[in-house]
Design brief:
The complex is a heterodimer of chains A (about 350) and B (about 80). In chain A, helix 1 (about 15-25) crosses helix 8 and helix 5 packs across helix 6. Chain A has a 6-stranded antiparallel sheet with strand order 6-7-9-8-10-11, sandwiched between helices. In chain A, strands 3-2-1-4-5 form a 5-stranded parallel sheet, sandwiched between helices. Chain A has about 350 residues and is an alpha/beta fold. The relative contact order of chain A is 0.12. Chain A is built from 12 helices and 11 strands. Chain A folds into 2 domains: about 5-210, Rossmann fold (3-Layer(aba) Sandwich); about 240-345, no CATH class. Chain A is about 35% helix and about 15% strand. Chain B is of the alpha+beta class and about 80 residues long. Chain B has one domain: Translation Initiation Factor IF3 (2-Layer Sandwich), CATH 3.30.110. Chain B is built from 2 helices and 4 strands. Chain B has helices spanning about 15-25, 40-55; strands spanning about 5-10, 30-35, 55-65, 65-70. In chain B, strands 1-2-4-3 form a 4-stranded mixed sheet, with helices on one face. In chain B, helix 1 packs parallel to helix 2. The radius of gyration of chain B is 11 Å and the shape is globular. The chains are: A alpha/beta (about 350), B alpha+beta (about 80). The interface of A and B includes residues 56 and 60 of A.
């Protein structure tokens, strides 16, 4: 009887190798990829014009294609909020709840496994590879808290861990699993070479925006301004785009830095009041939050500062409210010394 | 056989792929789905998803700032 495994596929090398090791042993493998909303994959490529020269492939899909397996991409944006708001095991260096995230994903994969009559789960985890979620002490925590117990197999580091049910029952051959550990990537790279994988993803700085310090700061600023931990998909998308400037506690400006971002922000002009320069080439800015009428001029002066008219005595801008009503403003661009560093989010 | 439309404009990858995946689950083999998107990434991602899941992209084209793909649901 051919056993069936669900592989958590991130798009990185480790999950690609773990799945391939199982295929080598004759296991039927299908992949799952979870989309939290914070995944680095894809989004910024689509937004920033300068990034559009890079390949836009989705690495999880690419991995599945290399492996010849199906991939199920699952939207967990709403459910994931609770992990971001209240991580039982806390955050990492930034707003990254890595251990809670791993537990949650394995739990969701377990539910999928049970619903689709699969036998066990595999991940590309390696003992000691990540300071928060991939340590020897946390490996059993993931198994316990997700409810998967010994139906979770980590083929790349299985030899450093207790036997799991797939090994005990002979569904997989433990002798053909691996004992990788630590932060070195050399064993994985050697195995990739053995399998003939060449063009695999080499992520710099992880695959989640929550591990990014600047992004985390923006998220915390958003929560502080709103007085509660909450976000919608548009919020977390917009945190990835533009220059964020908060001149008053009640509102902030999201100012495009280049053409691609301007084009992207254009799509939000019905949801957010906006400012754009008309007398000089310049950015598009969205205004997020509540503001008084007299603060529009302050906002306009800031936006003018980032236009090609920044040295001019006067710059004209168009303000558009959520109803699409517009009016023109003429302002003196803010001088560099009038833009305090603490406004920059 | 039916032809349905799916509007994925303003969604960034992988959301258009997820929307296609969810809609295809409700369709029958041979049905066609026309998807309209604004993220250029769909021109790679939706065909890749179709290849690994046994569906076929019959047509893909760019119209101004929009990307249009016609997907035919496979038999599996």
């Amino acid at each position: 009887m051919q056993r069936k495994a669900v592989a958590l596929i991130s798009g990185g090398l480790d999950s690609l190798l773990a799945a391939r090791v199982m295929l080598e042993q004759g296991i039927h493998v299908e992949g799952i990829n979870f989309f939290t909303g914070f995944c680095v994959e894809g989004h910024t490529h689509a937004i920033r014009k300068k990034d559009q020269k890079k390949p836009k492939r989705n690495n999880a899909l690419w991995s599945a294609e290399q492996l010849g397996i199906k991939l199920h991409i699952i939207d967990i944006i709403e459910e994931y909020k609770d992990i971001v708001f209240n991580p039982k095991y806390g955050y990492g260096a930034n707003m990254n709840p890595c251990l809670d995230c791993k537990i949650f994903m394995v739990k969701k994969a377990r539910e999928w496994m049970e619903a689709h009559d699969f036998d066990f789960i595999i991940t590309g985890e390696v003992v000691g590879q990540r300071p928060k979620s991939q340590r020897k002490e946390t490996m059993p925590v993931v198994q316990r808290d997700s409810g998967i117990e010994d139906l979770l197999l980590r083929p790349l580091c299985a030899l450093n861990l207790p036997e799991t049910k797939p090994e005990r029952e002979g569904w997989v051959n433990r002798d053909k699993l691996y004992g990788f550990s630590g932060r070195t990537r050399k064993p994985q790279m050697a195995l990739a070479k053995e399998f003939g994988f060449e063009d695999y993803a080499q992520p710099a700085g992880g695959c989640c925006f929550l591990t990014d310090e600047k992004y985390s700061n923006k998220l915390q600023d958003l929560w502080k301004a709103r007085g509660s931990k909450q976000y919608e998909m548009d919020d977390i998308m917009l945190l990835k785009v533009g220059r964020h400037i908060r001149p008053e506690p009640g509102y902030k400006l999201i100012i495009s830095r280049e053409e691609g971002e301007g084009k992207f922000l254009q799509g939000y002009r019905k949801q957010y009041p906006s400012l754009r320069t008309t007398s000089h080439p310049g950015p598009l800015a969205l205004i997020d939050g509540e503001f008084m009428d007299e603060q529009i001029e302050q906002a306009a002066r800031i936006v003018a500062r980032y236009s090609q008219g920044k040295m001019a005595d006067e710059v004209e801008l168009e303000f558009m409210d959520r109803d699409g009503d517009t009016r023109l403003l003429k302002v003196k661009p803010l001088a560099p010394n009038e833009l305090p560093g603490e406004w920059m989010v | 056989m039916s032809l349905q439309q799916l509007d994925c404009r303003r969604l960034l990858c992988p959301m258009p792929v997820i929307r296609v995946q969810d809609r295809v689950q409700q369709l029958q083999s041979g049905d066609e789905l026309e998807v309209i998107c604004t993220d250029p990434g769909v021109m790679q991602d939706i065909p890749a998803w179709c290849r690994i899941n046994g569906h076929q992209v019959l047509e893909q084209r760019q119209q101004g700032d929009e990307y249009c793909l016609l997907v035919q649901v496979g038999s599996d």
